[in-house]
Request: fold
Amino acid sequence: MNRLTPAHLASLIMGTWFFASAAGNFAAGLISAATGGEQAGPERVLEIYGKVGWLALGVGMAMLAIAPLIRRLMHLDTLRDGG
Amino acid sequence: MSSIPYELEQQRTLLGHPRGLFVLFFAEMWERFSYYGMRALLIFYLVQHWLFSDQQASIIYGSYTALVYIAPVVGGYLADRYLGQRKAVQFGAVLLTVGHFLMAFEGDGGEQAAARNVFWLALSFIIVGSGFLKANISVMVGQLYPRTDIRRDPAYTIFYMGINLGAALGSMFAGYLGQTYGWAYGFGAAGLGMLLGLIVFVLGKPLLMGQGEPRDPLRLTARVLGLKFEWLLYVVGLLCIVLVWFMIQQQRLVGLLLGSAGILLLGYVLYSAVFRLAREDRDRIFAALYLIIGSILFWALFEQAGSSLNLFTDRSVDRSLFGWTVPASMFQSLNAIYIVLLAPLVAWLWLLLGRRGLEPSTPTKFAMAVVQAAWVFWCSLRARRQAAQAASRRSSMSS
Reply:
């Protein structure tokens, strides 16, 4: 992550990274809360997990598909360390 | 300037590394011991002792871990600007020790208990304490080496092993004690671990060779508002605890603040990238933001481990091993154990692939992480089908 960022934006991007981790943790709480709804029980947990699984699988596949595109955005050929 | 008094220490090494590395190693190992030990028990403490519903407990757990991630932004800033890393880590360790011991103050439990306020306070001490300690102790590892020293990367590998060792042992010991003998024993073990970390860090100061000290020591001793500036900063830390104590009880507010601050931050970064950077630098920022947003989804999946999955393990998983029922919280140690076992294997795999020019790019690795996490959840569909089949077999046999 640091290598992708010009020095003057480094702390800002690191801060964004921390925020994203925090947001992910909060979102995890929301998913977890969904498994404990009114019809709580192991059935309910597995049902939610299944739905989350399908959704994430779709997103993950899309991410795989566009990965080469993102890689091009990184311009690795002209990337210099310490710059 | 300060290198001469430490000349002797610089020549003393352990496994080829400065001895200070092992001070940081053990201090951080004990800190992770207490953090993960407490976290393995937290969701059960919320549901079984304070009698929150699964839903409430999940949101509280999510808010707690979210705040733990945000706090280092403040702690890192204060350390960089004024305190220096060593003092910040020491202050953080004191707050953490207090926080973990406060967790052991059970009170009567239940929904009306006044002792719930002590519990919120304990969480706040741990959140702010992590903020002062976590990022700064990692920075200190690098400070022990000159910038171009080839031992830097191996030093971080050793340090991360300490983190995972602490995490694994913490969930095992505190988890076992807490779910077998009582909450106070588990949280007390976490507190003792943190106290040991603090002691190691304080006693090991000479081995740190004067690194991580404040940039401007005179500034810290100057009086501001009738207090030494250093002490004023600690008071700011305590005020942060009060603020967090309020926020952790208003979990919706935490979500709202995270969301709005996140969007503002994203907007600002995008704005700077689009209007102020050359094309290649701008593209790279876009790539970084894409990875950052992808990581949100990954964490949302991954962090079910300590909340819903932990509860599920406790309630619906057969945990007997040679006639002993393993407490659910002990399974929380598996993540760290697998990291220790598998990380060298994966690193070796990337090296092998890299030599043939086949190593996947970072965006591909991110996508693979999401797909694999998704696959785990998708497996639950099969588990559900099997459970349903087993249930129908049972009912047809009994009828």
